[in-house]
Design goal:
By secondary structure, this protein is α/β, with parallel strands linked by helices. The protein has 5 helices and 14 strands. Bound molecules: flavin-adenine dinucleotide (FAD).
Length: 242
């Protein structure tokens, strides 16, 4: 078997878009080509920087690959387009065959096999991207780990990877998923509004040895929930921000 090359760069390098999937009304997954025997040198949850130029100034923003870490020959970024967003609009403006400049991967708060037996994930919007990389990894490897996802969005049309969550709940007894919607459709039976202490208490494994919680989303959400998790008894080391 050919050896796998693990890619990590300090300077921006071009990556070619091989395919694009529409996930929701404002979010797409961009699949980038890697050489045949190459993978990104990253742990589940680590991120790349996407580089662009705006008004003659160099800008960069972090994006966590949503693809299964260790995939050879390609990786994917799932990106929500902000109307006024410099880099997210730049990525969405690209077509199949175009290249995007990226550096990294860089270490964030990531998953390492064996670090916990029970893992909570609290995600808002595109904060789901590190979570899906970690969840795909744990389920694909069949690790003996129980997973509890709380995913918060505005409406059900904003739920990224919805079909995959439904499939994972059906196919994996160790995967639990609870959606929270600010504006739920009629008949919605899961969470409504914002993620609260009561929702965290009911849906996450209780704090204790062998339990960690990944938290990722818009900065105000992360700030508020980090404090609530602390008051619920999760230690500083048990709460990981990718
Ligand atoms: C570690 C890490 C990983 C990330 N991974 C992803 C990812 O996989 N996919 C992804 O789509 N994004 C991800 N993000 C967010 C991403 O880095 C950018 O912040 C986002 O794409 C907006 O950048 P922009 O240049 O388009 O907008 P900017 O030009 O920076 O901002 C323009 C306007 O957009 C709005 N805006 C920007 N960011 C947010 C936000 N997060 N929430 C609400 N409003 C916002 C604000 O109103 C802002 O004024 C990640 C962030 C971090 C810290």
């Amino acid at each position: 078997m050919d050896a796998v090359t693990r890619i990590k760069t300090k300077t921006p390098s071009p990556y070619r878009i091989a395919a694009i999937d529409a996930d929701t009304h404002d979010t797409k997954t961009f699949h980038f080509a890697l050489p045949e025997h190459a993978t990104l040198d990253m742990l589940p949850g680590d991120h790349l920087f996407v580089h662009a130029t705006a008004n003659g100034k160099a800008v960069k923003r972090p994006y966590t690959p949503s693809s299964l870490p260790g995939t050879v020959g390609s990786f994917a970024l799932t990106v929500k387009r902000y109307e006024a967003g410099i880099v997210s609009r730049h990525i969405h403006d690209q077509k199949i065959g175009d290249t995007v400049l990226m550096s990294g991967p860089n270490a964030g708060g990531h998953w390492v096999d064996g670090m916990a037996k029970k893992v909570g994930f609290v995600a808002g919007g595109t904060g789901i991207t590190p979570m899906i990389a970690i969840i795909r990894w744990i389920l694909a490897k069949g690790l003996d780990v129980e997973l509890f996802l709380i995913f918060s969005n505005k409406t059900d049309a904003d739920i990224i990877f919805r079909k995959e969550w439904e499939r994972d709940v059906r196919e994996h007894r160790n995967f639990h998923c609870y959606h929270v919607l600010e504006q739920p459709p009629p008949g919605w039976i899961q969470g409504v509004g914002r993620v609260t202490a009561d929702i965290l208490r009911a849906q996450l494994p209780p704090p204790g040895p062998g339990t960690i919680v990944f938290l990722c989303g818009p900065p105000p959400m992360v700030e508020a929930l980090e404090e609530i998790l602390r008051t619920l008894g999760y230690s500083e080391e048990a709460v990981i921000l990718p």
